[in-house]
Amino acid sequence: MSRRALLLVNRHSRHGQQAVSDAIEQLKKLGLELMEESTEDPMHLPELIRRYRQQVDLIIVGGGDGTLNAAVDGIVDTQLPLGILPLGTANDLARTLGIPTSLADACQVIATGQVKQIDLGWVNGKHFFNVASLGLSVQITQKLTKEAKRRWGIFAYAATAIQVIWQTRPFSAEIRLNDEVIHVKTVQIAVGNGRYYGGGMAVTHDATIDDQRLDLYSLELRHWWQMLPLIPTMRQGRHTELRSVRSLHGREFEVSTRKHRPINTDGEITTYTPARFRVVPHAITVLVPAETDLSNFT
Predict the structure, then answer these.
(1) Could you list the residue range(s) of the whole structural domain that residue 16 is in?
(2) pLDDT tens digits, residue range 153-186?
(3) 57, 78, 206, 290 — which has fewest CB within 10 A?
(4) Are 59 and 174 part of one and the same domain?
(5) pLDDT at 237 (0 to 100)
């Protein structure tokens, strides 16, 4: 008996329009019965998923991290397994889960892969897969255009970061962890659930998406040029070992600032400070390559 899947594709993602027909053909050949839906507004994705909860066996989302972030609340509500077609620019969640970027291989994972439980992050009522952050990353998000991502791909993140780094100014924040209150002057606070974000940067060197913890770092720099030597270390998650970077781990954090500051979750601005963060252990199931050990993706 074939499995029934709801296929949600962001046709405006970097590879969405050209890849959707190939994906449908490949998935059907692999024995999946597909019901395809699309929407111009990603905010409608959770409702589409809820609508099909009794009609399908799994959800397949084709797009980048922003599309997956838009769909996550519907996946949590229905508890349907998630298959991922990495059609975006960065595809950080797919990278964290070891899902190949090849469309044919990703379809094979959906058809024959194993089901794995993963954690989710949560901030102010919004779930996220990878990272929620404020400060420098928000400025990059606001400046990074769809046109740049389509034209330059993953290199658009680095190019945009270089443009905004010199304009960055430190801000004051208060971080609460358990009974401890920490006052910081920082250019960025990031709270990670998964491992990768921002086009392949690592939250910290040993982060995994099923470790039932959140990893927070704060970039406590005084001058913009101090950011430049940090960039190479962020690819391996080794920036947290430097004196100018505060690193904390826990199941819950609270972050407040003097004025409301926007927070981006998986690359989309979705809430503002003050913010309460927490991990939701084993929140959903995803299809990953057979024999995958998520701790190996470090």
Answers:
(1) 3-112
(2) 555 556 556 666 667 789 999 999 999 999 999 9
(3) 290
(4) no
(5) 79
